[in-house]
Amino acid sequence: MNALVPLPVLLPVLAAGVKIVIGPRHPLLKRAISVAALAAVLGVAIALLVRADRDGPQAVQLGGWPAPVGITLVADRLSAVMLVVSSAVTLCVMVYAFGQDAAERDRDTPMSVFHPTYLLLAAGVCDAFLAGDLFNMFVGFEMMLMASYVLVTLGGTMARVRAGTTYIIVALLSSMLFLVAIAVLYAATGTVSMAQLSWRIAELPGPVARIAEVTLLTAFAVKAAVFPLSMWLPDSYPSAPTPVTAVFAGLLTKIGVYGIIRAETLLFPGGHLRRVLLVAALLSMLVGVLGAMVQIDVRRLLSFTLVSHIGYMIFGVGLDSAAGLAATVFYVLHHITIQTTLFLVAGLIDRRGGATSLARLGGLARTAPLVGVLFFIPAMNLGGIPPLSGFLGKLGLLRAGLAQGGPLADALVAGAVVTSLLTLYSLVKVWNQAFWSAPPEDMPEGARAGRLPIAMVAGSAALVVLSLAYTAAGGPLYALCERAADELLTPQTYVQAVFPSGGAT
């Protein structure tokens, strides 16, 4: 079973190479290769989750070099469940992209470039989740970011290049911070293996450990778009092609959250920066949702809700408790799916209504009722309407906050409730204007009549069904998240998987 651990990284890379060799010919074959590769990654991820949940973390040393010399990949409960959800999401977005490709053939979205680059992005995401050392995690981040640089500026239009420039500069700065943190830790401990660092960091002088922790968390916070390091996101995401925006919103920020979880549980346990994280969580929730309330463009509104709901995840990490971590893991899985779905549906709204500005939309409940259903379900889920998975995740966070107690935790609980209500208000505003109100007298030139592309609808609908499955299987899924949280708080199991014969110190 350990031999399966590298496959989520290798399969998309091999598929991307094959597609580049094939070139622009044989489009059906290239699509089949993409679907087969991502479906295989999903199957491998499910197998790894079953094994990790039953037998503990699965580790493999690539090239036969033992840790900490070689490259270590580790699939524990957290990384395996993140792999499953991210693989399902990337597969559905790829199907959506097939429909957009067939329907538009738009020179501003050259899909022959999109598909192999997208597969490299998926490989980078998987590598970041599985990395057992900080430098390999950095490599996974850079694979993902190099692909994202291409995707965010795809087509080379003025708007995309302008937005992409901001994104690239911020991403490079965060990568530089990440590399500095790795250098500090290596200079102080002599290793970048996370299993080994979990022991050696505890022996460092306090100021050195805090400098490394602050630098590492800052790098991850930029990638996660935690306030006040989030102002780049609303200007960068909305201008990209719909499949790109959707996968960025669903996955890329969660890589930063994943890094924060790893840092605060495996490398720097003890909650030294707990209050800082809680304050950042509260500000992210409130500033993000207030920004969403005043937007009139659907994509920008969703971008601000993304910032606000990152605050929920940081809230759970900052509590530094098993209950808070379990709720965070559950909410991350929920939010990856919901946020991706909403951005895909925004693309359907744009295709049918010809715009994403609320001032130019109306009457879609009559002209596109299926789009209305596909928007309504994830919108209510993001707003936290019971019994949907968004409600379950928020309830878990609120219970963990109340159990923690204290003025700051209580303020987070109140802020989370207010943010949820204001999120619901913002999404109801979209529903009332785009779907219930009368259509504008002068329909936008881009509005299209007729049936929507089947693949675009199928990709969106599949994610809606997946989000509903979180609700139907809420009990078992939440129990899995609780086991993952317990495992995170007992890093000895992770260390033992990497160093089965000892030697971590």
From TrEMBL:
Sorted alphabetically, the Gene Ontology cellular component annotations on this record are: plasma membrane
The protein's name: NADH/Ubiquinone/plastoquinone (Complex I)
Instruction: Tell me the compartments it is located in.
Output: Cell membrane; Membrane
Family statement: Belongs to the CPA3 antiporters (TC 2.A.63) subunit D family.
- Name the keywords, alphabetized: Cell membrane, Membrane, Transmembrane, Transmembrane helix, Ubiquinone
Q: Listed GO molecular functions?
A: NADH dehydrogenase (ubiquinone) activity
**What InterPro entries does the entry give?**
CPA3_Na-H_Antiporter_D (IPR050586), NADH_UbQ_OxRdtase (IPR003918), ND/Mrp_TM (IPR001750)
Q: What transmembrane ranges does the database entry give?
A: 31-50, 80-99, 119-152, 164-188, 244-261, 273-294, 370-392, 412-431, 452-473
* Gene Ontology biological process terms, A to Z: ATP synthesis coupled electron transport
The chain positions of domain NADH:quinone oxidoreductase/Mrp antiporter transmembrane read 131-412
Q: How does it sit in the membrane?
A: Multi-pass membrane protein
